[in-house]
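Run: sequence + copper (II) ion -> complex structure.
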Amino acid sequence: MEFQPRKHMRFIHFKLHPEEENMKTVTYTIPNISCMHCVHTIKTEVSEVQGVKSVEASPQTKQATITFDTPATEDKIVEVLKEINYAPA
Ligand SMILES: [Cu+2]
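>> structure
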């Protein structure tokens, strides 16, 4: 009896967020990331791709980490990165 509400809540969560099953995180090395302006540009442009959940980038590591779900794909994200002159190495 005590555990029923918890089970119920988990079920609801699963039903409300079925898209989380396909969530993917990919890290790209992008030599052109040289300052926070680059980071801002990458965040702004890649975030506009439908399905992209989060974008992190760093001029120190020259890496961008992108979490996404359908309809976003790696191909689409790389295409956008190339368009804005931040092609992954
Ligand atoms: Cu820059």
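>> summary
The mean pLDDT is 88. Residues 34-35, 37-38 surround copper (II) ion (CB under 6 Å).
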